[in-house]
């Protein structure tokens, strides 16, 4: 006896749901404040829960969402993307967790109910304005090109160079 192809659809649906939940997929969105400016990737990202005292500018917002990653996993992804975008720091915003259920038709009737817990984490992506001012290139007509220059590693080492 041969199975009809349509009877395999519920099994394939259940299998794809299990694979999706087990792989640790996350949806990450980065919204830059200015699309034409790109910064060199950074290595060290400071993390703030409230507005820092140091002068800064917001260069974007990151939101990461997953059905299977923990808040720590989302945080690592968020911080990694901020570094790729050239951030000096992030200001963490909201963290939410929602619960729902997913129903998948069973092969021989009925529905398989699966609980789904989703995590969402958001942050503002920032750069220090006191560092960006130091890497401004005199005589460069388009100062947006300075954004691609890496920030100085040691601000104190540059101070003697800035004195007249």
Sequence of secondary-structure elements: HEEEHEEHH
Number of distinct helices? 4
Strand content: 25-35%
Taken from the alpha-carbon principal axes, the silhouette is elongated
Q: Record the strand order, biggest sheet.
A: 1-3-5-4-2
Proportion in helices: 25-40%
The pLDDT mean sits at 74
Report the C-alpha radius of gyration, rounded. Answer: 23 Å
What is the total domain count?
A: 1
Q: Which residue ranges are poorly predicted, with pLDDT under 50 across at least 5 consecutive positions?
A: 8-23, 136-164
Please report the distance between the alpha carbons of the first and last residues: 91 Å
Please describe the biggest sheet, giving its number of strands, its sense, and whether it closes into a barrel: 5 strands, mixed
Annotate the secondary structure layout:
Elements: H1 9-22, E1 26-32, E2 46-48, E3 56-66, H2 71-84, E4 89-105, E5 111-128, H3 129-134, H4 155-162
Parallel strand pairs: 2-4
Antiparallel strand pairs: 1-3, 3-5, 4-5
Give an overview of the whole structure:
By secondary structure, the protein is of the alpha+beta class. It has one domain (5-162). It is built from four helices and five strands; from the N terminus they run H-E-E-E-H-E-E-H-H. A hairpin with a 5-residue loop joins strand 4 (89-105) and strand 5 (111-128). The longest helix has 14 residues, at 9-22. The chain is elongated and about 65 Å long. The N and C termini lie far apart (91 Å). The relative contact order is 0.19. Mean pLDDT is 74; it is low at 8-23 and 136-164.
């Amino acid at each position: 006896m041969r199975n009809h192809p349509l009877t395999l659809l519920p099994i394939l649906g259940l299998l794809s749901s299990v694979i999706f939940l087990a792989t640790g997929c996350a949806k990450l969105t980065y919204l830059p404040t200015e699309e034409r400016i790109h910064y060199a990737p950074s290595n060290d990202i400071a993390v703030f829960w409230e507005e820092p005292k140091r002068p800064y500018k917001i260069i974007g917002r990151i939101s990461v969402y997953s059905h299977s990653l923990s808040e720590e996993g989302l945080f690592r992804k968020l911080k990694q993307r901020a570094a790729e975008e050239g951030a000096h720091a992030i200001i963490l915003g909201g963290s939410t967790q929602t619960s729902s259920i997913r129903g998948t038709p069973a092969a021989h009737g009925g529905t398989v109910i699966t609980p789904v817990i989703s995590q969402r984490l958001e942050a503002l992506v920032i750069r220090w304005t006191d560092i960006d001012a130091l890497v401004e290139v005199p005589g460069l007509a388009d100062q947006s090109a300075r954004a691609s220059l890496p920030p100085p590693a040691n601000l104190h080492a540059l101070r003697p160079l800035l004195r007249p």
